[in-house]
Every structure is written in C-alpha cells, then in structure tokens.
User: Which sequence fits this backbone?
C-alpha cells in the first residue's frame, strides 16, 4: 500500500470570467522508503499538487489517500490533525514562526504531533547544523539557516511522508548537500519523500522522477 496516493486530481482556478485548469487528472503514488522528485517548468502545477496532497487545498475532482485512508473532503479539523501527526511540510518560505526561536519552532511542532522529546530535539538541531543558532529568531538567520531550520521542523515529528516545495531553491551548494543528506536519512528510516524541484542534483538522487507539465503527468 502506498504511503500517499492521488487519484485523478483536477484543480480549477477562477478569475472573474476566466477559468484556469491547473491540474488535469493527475495520478501519483509514493511508497515507504522512496524519494520521488516532482519536476517541471514553473507554472506546471507542482505547488498546486503539493497543496492538494497535504490537504491544504481541496481538489475539484479526484481524491487523495494517506496510508489507505481518505484525506480529501474531510473536515479541516481532521485534515489538520492528520498533517500534524503524519505529514512533514517544507515550503519555499514561511516554515517558521517569527516570534519563536529555532528551538521553540521545532519544539512546538513536536508538541502538536504529541512527540515531545528533548533529547531528540537537540539531536535534530545538531543534525541540521544549528546547535549554535538554536536560540536565534528567524529574522536573525541566513537563507540557508532558515531552510535547514524549516527542515528540522518538518521532520521533527518523524512523518510518514515529507513533502518539500523547492527546498534548495535559494541555498548554496553546501546547504543543498546537507538538506539532501537529511532526506536520505529520513527515507532510510522508512519515511517517504516527495520533492517539487528544479534541481538536477535532487533529481539524480531521487529513486524516480515524475514529470509534470501543464497540469499533467508526462510519462
């Protein structure tokens, strides 16, 4: 059974009298221990698909299942509870609460998932190379540090699946390698990883690549 599966996903956007079909019958599945790269040009629907996969947005057609259980068209309280416990999300930005330190951001996520563990929290911050910055606020972090802190938040609950949207788009090569190593560690523990990316390096390291173009999966 796939960890995450999307079945015939459609998504429409309306602007006054215009209608845009952002996703056109997308099917995708990710297995435990697998890292999949979702690649395609800007505007191909990658971010829209990720939002539907994690239940932040509802598809207009089709449905998403997480570990065999329907996620689509469930109450938002149910979807939020599933995300808090089972899904790690790493967005392009906005992964941290500005009024909390790095340590407090990670700690909050672990509490929401009911997986509070001080020892693991410290290990995780060390893994992302931010032990010396754990008391820093997001405004005090560089772009690379913020990306690594966001990743620590995303994997702090040991999610069944980690979804990342252009996680290395604004970081240097060294930080990209560090992030990739953490992805590898997560899948070696049995977690699944889906990355929307333009990075050829991430594409080469993935188990397989799903190409998305104009809202469709291209085989």
Assistant:
């Amino acid at each position: 059974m796939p960890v995450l599966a999307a079945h015939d996903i459609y998504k429409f956007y309306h602007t006054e009298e215009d209608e845009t079909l952002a996703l056109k019958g997308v099917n995708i599945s990710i297995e435990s221990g697998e890292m999949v790269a979702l690649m395609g040009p800007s505007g191909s629907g990658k971010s829209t698909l990720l939002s539907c996969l994690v239940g932040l947005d509802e598809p207009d057609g089709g449905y998403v299942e997480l570990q065999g259980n329907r996620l689509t068209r469930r109450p938002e309280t149910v979807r939020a509870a599933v995300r808090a416990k089972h899904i790690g999300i790493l967005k392009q930005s906005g992964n941290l609460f500005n009024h909390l330190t790095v340590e407090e951001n990670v700690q909050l996520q672990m509490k929401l998932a009911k997986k509070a563990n001080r020892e693991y929290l410290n290990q995780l911050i060390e893994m992302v190379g931010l032990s010396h910055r754990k008391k820093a606020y997001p405004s005090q972090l560089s772009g690379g540090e913020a990306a690594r802190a966001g990743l620590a938040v995303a994997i702090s609950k040991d999610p069944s699946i980690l979804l990342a949207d252009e996680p290395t788009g604004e970081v240097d090569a060294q930080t990209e390698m560090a992030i990739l190593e953490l992805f590898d560690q997560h899948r070696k523990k049995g977690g699944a990883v889906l990355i929307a990316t333009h990075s050829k390096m991430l594409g080469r390291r993935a188990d397989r690549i799903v190409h998305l173009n104009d809202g469709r999966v291209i085989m």
